[in-house]
Amino acid sequence: ASATMRSTSHQHRLPPPAKDDINFQSLPWNLNLPDQHYYLHLVTTPMEGWTNLHYDPTTDGGVLTSKRTDGTLESLHHYSQNPIRLTPATTSLNYGTTIWEGLACRRSPTSEKALVFRPQKNYARFVQGAHAMCLPPPSYELFMRGLQLVVQNNIHLLPPSPDIDPKTGVPLGGAKLYVRPMLMGSGQQLGLHSSPQVSLVYFVSPTGSYFQGNAMGGLKLHLERRKSRAARGGLGSVKCCGNYAVTMRPLLDAKKLGFDDNLYLDLDTYRESSLQEAILQELSAANIFLVLKTGEIVTPSLKRGTILPGVTRDSVLELAKAFTDELQPVVAKSVGVSSSDIAVTVSERDVRVKDLLDAVEVFITGTAAEIVPVQSIATSPSPKDELDGGEEESLSVTFPHGQSLPGGPVTTKLLEMLREVMAEKRVCDATKDWLCDLYESPAVFRKSNMK
């Protein structure tokens, strides 16, 4: 077998080292080194679903783990040499029936283990998306075992553990092995029906930061008043392909104007009232947080069904609630008052444009981005032919704390907390199941409960 085809034995708890001929720290957010990847691929039908024939957790058997004569997995394929074959009538190509997840795998600087961050949350969102797209969801056991195997068989692409800041003891940012599970209608048909065949696919890529290149400061966001990312009753909360396709043209237009990304509105609330009263949603591929002068750390609520329930978003909320006392002096410093004069609260609610005027810090969260500060949010002039002869409200607000990286006191502290958790240097009741060791036995790997 190829040297990159590592054994799936669980006798060795630590992963082998990363390839020494790759400059992992220089990798962009992209599909990097595809000639060195292997992907997993399983197929079923809606009638059959995912059964023990695909994966049997009691024996660790089934198609997923069966071996060829050369000792490699039958479900494993070389990314460049064995691409997935699709016909013109493939359901997902015609009707967009594809969902996917994004997970990050890192080496711990504390133990050197290969750790994946909160896969239980990704599985829960995967099941929700499968239901929305009329696709049979894999079992929790199958989802987790596939995740283990695709990382173990690409372990040469797992970057080295991050360096530790000698002054603070906090792990620095760095490259990661990004893992993308996908579920898609891979059968062929012409009618608008659920796909006669379904594929479960896992692929990987070693990557840098999503917003790599903004080294001079935080993000400059465009407040998008004309284009909608998601509407109530739609698929805004589902991690499906359409959620990203709809943001592509507005994103390219915003970048031409000098912005890094768009911040979307619930357009109904804008058209019904005013720009100040319009409700914020999220970015093209990240959630948003505000730190207000009142001491409130707030992010838009999920209750409208228009926002993706981000794993990093949830993690920041949990950390902020668990370590409120530790955050109090940091929030006070950001606001510019003494600790005794402010109380820290953490909330999910409707956040309106006018709240931006009371924010001392704004930051965004995502698996690929981690936590990135925002330095400004502004509208841009709308084309006259879109205004019907009228005028449109505008907004421009700058957040001084976002002018440099890693951001203001609260943004920096939350990023440090998150990285400490990922490096096994911070733990509490809320975080005890967040890190899963990919070289544990399958049963131990999936033992963490699904909070």
Automatic annotation (TrEMBL):
One GO term of the biological process aspect: branched-chain amino acid biosynthetic process
Sequence segments annotated as region (Disordered): 379-404
Enzyme Commission identifier(s): 2.6.1.42
Catalysis performed (reactions): L-valine + 2-oxoglutarate = 3-methyl-2-oxobutanoate + L-glutamate; L-isoleucine + 2-oxoglutarate = (S)-3-methyl-2-oxopentanoate + L-glutamate; L-leucine + 2-oxoglutarate = 4-methyl-2-oxopentanoate + L-glutamate
Domain of life, per lineage: Eukaryota
PTM-bearing positions, type N6-(pyridoxal phosphate)lysine: K239
Cofactor(s) of this protein: pyridoxal 5'-phosphate
UniProt-listed Pfam families: Aminotran_4 (PF01063)
Enzyme class at the top of the EC tree: transferase
GO MF term list: branched-chain-amino-acid transaminase activity
Family matches, as InterPro entries: Aminotrans_IV, Aminotrans_IV_CS, Aminotransferase-like, B_amino_transII, BCAT-like_C, BCAT-like_N
Keywords noted in UniProt: Amino-acid biosynthesis, Aminotransferase, Branched-chain amino acid biosynthesis, Pyridoxal phosphate, Transferase
Gene3D superfamilies: 3.30.470.10, D-amino Acid Aminotransferase, subunit A, domain 2
Family: Belongs to the class-IV pyridoxal-phosphate-dependent aminotransferase family.
UniProt-recorded name of the protein: Branched-chain-amino-acid aminotransferase
Protein's organism: Cyclotella cryptica
Source taxonomy: Eukaryota, Sar, Stramenopiles, Ochrophyta, Bacillariophyta
